[in-house]
Amino acid sequence: MTERKKIALVSSHGGHLTELLELAPAFAECNTFYFCYDAETTRRLPNAYLTPNRPYDPLQFLINLVRLWRIFSKERPDLLVSTGAEIAIPAFLVAKLRRVPSVYIECGAQVTRPSLTGRVVIHLADRFFVQWPELVPAYRGRAQYRGSLVDETAP
Questions:
Q1: What is the tally of structural domains in the chain?
Q2: Sign of the dihedral defined by the CA atoms of residues 104, 16, 71, 60, in that order
Q3: Average pLDDT for consecutive 10-residue bins of the chain (155 residues)?
Q4: Fewest CB atoms less than 10 Å from the CB: which of 18, 36, 125, 138?
Q5: pTM above 0.90?
Q6: How far is CA 7 from CA 17, 83, 104, in A?
Q7: Is residue 69 assigned to a domain?
Q8: Kindly report the CA angle at 138 between 132 and 143, in degrees rounded to 5?
């Protein structure tokens, strides 16, 4: 019997979480845990680690780095997947340091201009996807387009 893969799912709440949850069928055969901002929608998630929603607070960033290091030590994920936003940056740093493969999916709201998170994470993620073909050139060949997470008409 093969061991089930463990996947760390990281996102802020709102639209980023909605996009991440669109991927749930892909992880049905895996063990998962979440790292998200504490919000009404995230409190209902199974196996969730929640952190205060202070995205631009340098102290909270450092606290999240330490927390994520400990969480990764405990959970031992085989893969990190994130749809953003800024909460993803410390997760990708920890994944890189721990040699955990990582996938970032740029927010569907970013059509022609990269997000701040995307501009940082492009240098850390092993795979980087955008949801609009118009956004590929903005990442100078380092991003891939495979369709949209929420647009049913996309390929």
A1: 1
A2: positive
A3: 89 95 94 97 96 95 98 98 97 98 94 95 98 95 90 56
A4: 18
A5: yes
A6: 15, 14, 13
A7: yes
A8: 65
